[in-house]
Amino acid sequence: MLRPVWSLYAYQLIEPDEQLDLFACREVKVHLVARQLELGGHADRTLCGGLLPAQPLWRDLERPMLQDRRLCRACLATLEAQRRGDRPAWPGR
Fold first, then answer.
1. Is the pTM value of this prediction over 0.70?
2. Residues forming beta bridges with residue 65, ordered by sequence position
3. pLDDT tens digits for 30-67?
4. b/e 45-67 (16+ beta carbons within 10 angstroms → b)
5. FRET pair for 23, CA 20 to 30 Å: which of 4, 10, 33, 72?
6. Where are the domains of the chain?
């Protein structure tokens, strides 16, 4: 079975653990991460450019999760841009 060029399978959702990470998560948000690492990319960053928490809870991304109020708006915007075929830079780059 062929997989479409863009699919939710290309991403994972992460939740920080109970103790928020000093460098990554300063508020209770869930973030999106590309499942496949890209050459020249940052393996330790979310779609919004934030650092991954030390011990995140990884989940396969499913469509209903995109409605979660805790979902980082910048990650969602980057996901939508990639869905349209854009390759937006991370904030601050």
1. yes
2. none
3. 889 888 765 555 667 888 888 777 777 889 999 999 99
4. bbbbbbebbeebeeeebeeebee
5. 10
6. 8-84
- Count of CB atoms situated within 10 Å of the CB of 11: 20
Identity of residue 49: G
| H helices present in 3-87, as ranges | 73-83
Q: Which residue type occupies 71?
A: L
60: β partners: 12
Q: Which residues, 6 or more positions from 19, have their beta carbon under 8 angstroms from its beta carbon?
A: none
| Phi-psi category of residue 13: left, alpha or beta, with phi > 0 → left and psi -120 to 50 → alpha | beta
Cα 64 to chain centroid, rounded:
15
Structural contact between residues 63 and 6, judged by C-beta atoms closer than 8 angstroms: no
- Spell out the residues 6+ positions from residue 22 whose beta carbon is closer than 8 angstroms to its own: none
Taking the CB of residue 37, how many other CB atoms lie within 10 A of it?
A: 10
